[in-house]
């Protein structure tokens, strides 16, 4: 098994329809594949970003009928690459709950979906600048973590707000994840304050590569996202960043042997202790 892995992180400014999402991201994925990427990761909300509930109801579909998901399965097969759809907004499939799932989908070079993960933690917040978000109003949170096997090692899955919950990342690392994906559509205020710091902390704590493809800029539905797609080493070093909001591709080569080196140097994953309290 090779320790070297060529990856690409895609930064997007996704439109408000699934066809628009597919048309927007496909050229960037083709560019990444042409540059030699074996694993390509896209952001949260790759298929569409639409927070207006009446309009979202018109474009929401089942996973197996979503125009963008189907198109990206075909594109992965055409290009012969592994592709992580950072997330697609699709019907959850739970009877009696009309909320969507915010779902990561890992696609193999045959175009098959080989792993799924529904975002565990949903973003409900009133920000100091007056912005308010109630992701739980439209998104049904998942209830299980996920680690997927790839030819180069194991990939842990998370989405956006999950990055604030280190216990999830520790579980992923203990399940063997050497690379952890954090596709996101971060708000501008929280992105400016916390984005890089959180990603570097999660990498240091787990001794894993953390790969964070992001949405960036002003979207059709009126939201603004932070961008700054980022890749972090297991030692917490920033390996690469798109230091802007515009759509683009960040291409890197990872030496996965750095995971073992970091975990030998600081063997924190084996040093958990049970403890009492606090009361």
Please tag this protein with its features.
6-stranded mixed β-sheet; single chain; 16 strands; globular; 279 residues; alpha/beta; Nitrilase/N-carbamoyl-D-aminoacid amidohydrolase
Topology diagram in text:
Elements: E1 4-11, H1 18-34, E2 39-41, H2 53-59, H3 67-79, E3 82-91, E4 100-107, E5 113-118, E6 124-126, E7 132-134, E8 147-150, E9 153-157, H4 166-174, E10 179-181, H5 188-206, E11 209-212, E12 216-218, E13 224-226, E14 230-232, E15 238-241, E16 248-255, H6 257-265
Helix pairs in contact: 1-3
Task: Characterise this structure.
The chain is an alpha/beta fold. The chain has a single domain, classed as Carbon-nitrogen hydrolase (Nitrilase/N-carbamoyl-D-aminoacid amidohydrolase). It contains six helices and 16 strands. The strands form four sheets. It has a six-stranded mixed β-sheet. Strands 8-9-10-11-14-15 form a six-stranded mixed β-sheet, with helices on one face. Strand 3 and strand 4 form a beta hairpin. Helix 1 runs parallel beside helix 3.
Helix percentage: 25-40%
CATH topology assignment = Nitrilase/N-carbamoyl-D-aminoacid amidohydrolase
Q: Supply the helix-strand structural class.
A: alpha/beta
* CATH H level, superfamily name: Carbon-nitrogen hydrolase
| Straight-line distance between termini | 49 Å
Order of strands in the sheet with most strands: 5-4-3-2-1-16
Outline of this structure?
Belongs to the carbon-nitrogen hydrolase superfamily. NIT1/NIT2 family. The chain is α/β, with parallel strands linked by helices and 279 residues long.
């Amino acid at each position: 098994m090779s320790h070297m892995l060529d990856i690409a992180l895609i930064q997007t400014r996704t439109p408000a329809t699934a066809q628009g999402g597919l048309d927007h991201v496909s050229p960037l994925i083709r560019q990444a594949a042409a540059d030699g990427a074996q694993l390509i990761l896209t952001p949260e909300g790759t298929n569409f970003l639409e927070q207006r509930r009446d309009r979202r109801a018109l474009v929401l579909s089942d996973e197996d009928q979503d125009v963008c998901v189907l198109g990206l399965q075909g594109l992965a097969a055409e290009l012969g690459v592994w592709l992580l759809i950072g997330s697609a907004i699709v019907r959850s499939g739970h009877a009696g709950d009309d909320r969507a799932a915010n779902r990561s989908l890992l696609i193999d070079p045959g175009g098959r979906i080989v792993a799924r993960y529904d975002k565990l933690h949903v973003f409900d917040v009133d920000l100091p600048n007056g912005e308010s978000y109630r992701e739980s109003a439209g998104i049904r949170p998942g209830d299980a973590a996920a680690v997927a096997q790839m030819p180069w090692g194991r990939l842990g899955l998370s989405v956006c707000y999950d990055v604030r919950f280190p216990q999830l990342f520790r579980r992923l690392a203990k399940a063997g994840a050497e690379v952890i994906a954090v596709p996101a559509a971060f708000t501008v205020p929280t992105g400016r304050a916390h984005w890089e710091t959180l990603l570097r902390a999660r990498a240091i704590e787990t001794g894993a590569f953390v790969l964070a493809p992001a949405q960036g800029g002003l979207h059709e539905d009126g939201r603004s996202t932070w961008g700054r797609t980022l890749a972090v080493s297991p030692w917490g070093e920033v390996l690469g960043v798109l230091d802007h909001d515009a759509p683009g591709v960040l291409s890197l080569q990872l030496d996965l042997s750095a995971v073992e080196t970091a975990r030998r140097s600081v063997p924190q994953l084996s040093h958990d202790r049970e403890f009492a309290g606090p009361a």
